[in-house]
Amino acid sequence: MGRVAYVNGRYVPHDHAQVHIEDRGYQFADGVYEVVPVVDGVLVDEEPHLDRLGYSLGELRIAWPVRRQVLRLILREMMARNGLERGIIYFQVTRGVAPRDHKFPAKAKSSLVITTKRLKPPSAAILENGVAVSSQPDIRWERCDIKSLSLLPNILAKQAAHEAGAFEAWLVDEAGAVTEGSSTNAWIVTHSGEIVTYPKGQGILGGITRQSLLQLAATRNLRLVERSFTLDEAKAAAEAFLTSSSAFVLPVTRIDGEVVGGGKPGPVTRQLREIYVANVDAQIRAAK
Ligand code: PMP
């Protein structure tokens, strides 16, 4: 079965999917997106992702391209047409097609594009050894809470991290705080057992994995603190990890080449990954 993309109401072969050259997403990155994990053919945390899409659209005053319930149906149709069992579904909404002009167009209808991608779970070696991160300056704008298509600073940071041999970039703001990763949220576990991540607000993207993990951990008497932490604090932490829709919970065992937590994933990180995966399994059981 060939890959199928969805473009403004049509299901088309992925290789031939096109948008107009004056789509404002193409010319201005004037749009937003979502990435929802799919496991065993089930959308994980679908409703929080749709809530976040609504938030991003609202902040930019872009109209929903179709009603929420219709989008839910299209996502399912896309999974079926692509035979997607495990991976991600990507959808982006732009302000639409209009003659290039910075001001909002009076008439444009928002565009919706959807693609799917198969992904394997992280390898046993990655889970056993953790990943490396490289610190990079956080040069983004002041509305990182909007899941905007405009990702140049994130791309530059990820590329710099890749060239430094790391899996992810950890972004450090002017005050010296680690805000988040280029496409993941950043966490540490202190020697006193506190689980720390940067506070939700305009400084980071409120990750859905982050939000789920905070909710799940709160019911298990784990000590969670939303506060900023520095790069030095992270390097000296008992454990470090990152979260995202495609990575779930991944141990971080090296920061800028320095070993964290003895170079092996720690017990809290392992426990949090298990809690998160158990929650995904519960969603799959509930959906079937
Ligand atoms: N921060 C940034 C900047 C991201 O791009 C992402 C992934 N979209 C995340 C955090 C993680 O968010 P989520 O858990 O919703 O995938």
In short:
The protein is α+β, with helices and mostly antiparallel strands and 288 residues long. It has helices at residues 24-28, 46-60, 68-82, 124-129, 152-163, 208-218, 231-235, 267-287, and strands at 4-7, 10-13, 31-39, 42-43, 87-94, 111-118, 131-137, 168-172, 178-181, 185-189, 195-197, 224-226, 239-244, 248-255, 258-259. Residues 35, 154, 180, 183-185, 205, 207-210, 243-245 line the site of 4'-deoxy-4'-aminopyridoxal-5'-phosphate.
Describe the global form.
globular
Average of per-residue pLDDT values: 97
User: Number of domains in the coordinates?
Assistant: 2
Distance between the termini: 24 Å
Gyration radius, in Å: 19 Å
CATH classification, class level of the largest domain: Alpha Beta
Please tally the helical runs, counting DSSP H or I stretches of 4 or more residues: 8
CATH topology of the largest domain: D-amino Acid Aminotransferase, Chain A, domain 2
What binds here, in terms of ligands, is: 4'-deoxy-4'-aminopyridoxal-5'-phosphate
Helix amount:
25-40%
Q: SS-based structural class?
A: alpha+beta
SSE sequence, one letter per element: EEHEEHHEEHEHEEEEHEHEEEH
**CATH architecture classification name of the largest domain:** Alpha-Beta Barrel
Main beta sheet strand tally, sense and closure? 9 strands, mixed
Task: Tell me the name of the CATH homologous superfamily of the largest domain.
Answer: D-amino Acid Aminotransferase, subunit A, domain 2
Number of strands: 15
